[in-house]
Amino acid sequence: MTDATHPELRICVVGDELSAGVGDAKGLGWAGRVVARTRFAGAAMVFPLAIPGETTTALSQRWELETSRRFSNEPTVDNRLVVALGRHDLDAGLSVARSRLNLANILDVAESRRLETFVVGPPPGHPADAERLGELSTAFSDVANRRRVPYVDTFGPLVTHEQWLADLATSGDGYPGQAGYGLMAWLVLHTGWHSWLGLPDDAA
Q1: pTM for the whole thing?
Q2: CA gap 49, 46 in Å, rounded
Q3: Most buried of the four, 83, 117, 131, 170, by CB within 10 Å?
Q4: Are 126 and 86 in contact (CB under 8 A)?
């Protein structure tokens, strides 16, 4: 039931194919697992808005229009944004400074629209990209922290994680499988997800 105490919740998850769970045989990805383990206080709608191969430049140009079609201006609706960052800035040759600026622009626009925002950083991929991706994740974290926006570091905890590495090796395409997405979901659930939603930590 939607009321002032438990407003309808709408969450848009914007990002690349990792936010849609590509490679997961169950089709849940990390976002689906997080939603399944979250006991929302009222009605909740979660909209994954993924585009394969998307850079932060492309994301910064399209997220507002796509989310505005799912959000509501009704006072009984709580609109929230999850920014799921991927690895494609490296493939596109974007500088860290440009990637930082793209995320900053997204978060600043979201703040101007009074959207509570949650950021999930890029997970490890090919070992050859580890140093650059680690630098990018640190930069993203700094941008979010400066704006007091929750940031989930998935790179640091997983870059040497045996289960994560085994999952990537099994897939052979750079995408995690069920185990890898489960690890990402665990990190999200234990890095401020519930407090961001105003739920008790034991809600999972």
Answers
A1: 0.94
A2: 10
A3: 83
A4: no
3-state helix, strand, coil in the chain (%, to 5): 50, 15, 35
Cβ neighbors of 78 (< 8 A, separation 6 or more) are 7, 8, 9, 10, 116
What is the pLDDT, as a whole number, of residue 172?
77
C-alpha span between 191 and 26 (Å, rounded): 24
- 91 φ, ψ (degrees, to nearest 5): -60, -35
Cα 33 to Cα 11: distance, rounded to the nearest angstrom: 15
Q: What is the pLDDT of residues 93-133, one digit of tens each?
A: 999 999 999 999 999 999 999 999 999 999 999 999 999 99
The string of DSSP letters for 137-200 reads HHHHHHHHHHTT--EE--HHHHTT-HHHHHHHHHH-SS---HHHHHHHHHHHHTTTHHHHHT--
Torsion of CA 194, 29, 156, 37, to 10 degrees: 20
Band of pLDDT at residue 202, cut at 50, 70 and 90: low
Query: Token pair for residue 163?
Result: 């289960």
Q: How many CA atoms lie within 13 A of 10 on its CB side?
A: 15
The number of helices, as runs of H, and strands, as runs of E, in the chain is: 9, 5
* Total residues belonging to the chain: 204
